Amino acid sequence: MLRKSTPLPAQTLLIIGATSMIVQAALRQWAVPGARLILVARNAAKLQAVAQDCRVRGAEVETFTLADAADIAAIEPTLSKAWPKGVVLDGALIAHGDLPDQTAVQDDLEAIAQQTMVNGTSAACWLAALAPRFIAQNTGWVAAITSVAAVRGRAKMYVYGGAKALLSHHLEGLRQRVHGTQVRVVEILPGPIFTPMTAELGKMPLLTTPDAIAPRLVQACGHGTRGTNGKVYLPLAWWPIMTLLAHIPTRIWKGMKI
Amino acid sequence: MVQSFNWGGHPTTPQSAFPIFWLSELNAKHLPEGPLLAHGNSRSQGDVGLNKQGTLLLMRGCNRLIAWDEQNALLTAEAGITLHEIMEFATPRGYMLPVVPGTRFITLGGAIANDVHGKNHHAPISEGGGSFGHHVTTIGLWRSDVGKNGGFQTLQQGDDVFTATIGGLGLTGVIAHATIRLIPITAPTLSVTQTRLEDWANMYNAVMNSTAPYSVAWLDLSAPTSALGRGWLEEAVWDTNSAEAAPAPRLPRVGVPFRLPFNLWNAPVVRAFNGFWYKRPRAAHSNMPYAKFLWPLDGVANWRNTFGPAQFVQCQMVVPTEAAGTVLLQALQMVQARGKPTFLCTLKRMGNHTGAGLLSFPREGLALALDMVYQGAATDALLRDLEALVLETGGALYPAKDSAMSPAAFQAMYPKWHTLAAQRDPRITSDFWSRVTTAEEKIHAA
Question: What predicted TM-score, i.e. pTM, was given to this entire model?
Answer without folding.
Answer: 0.95
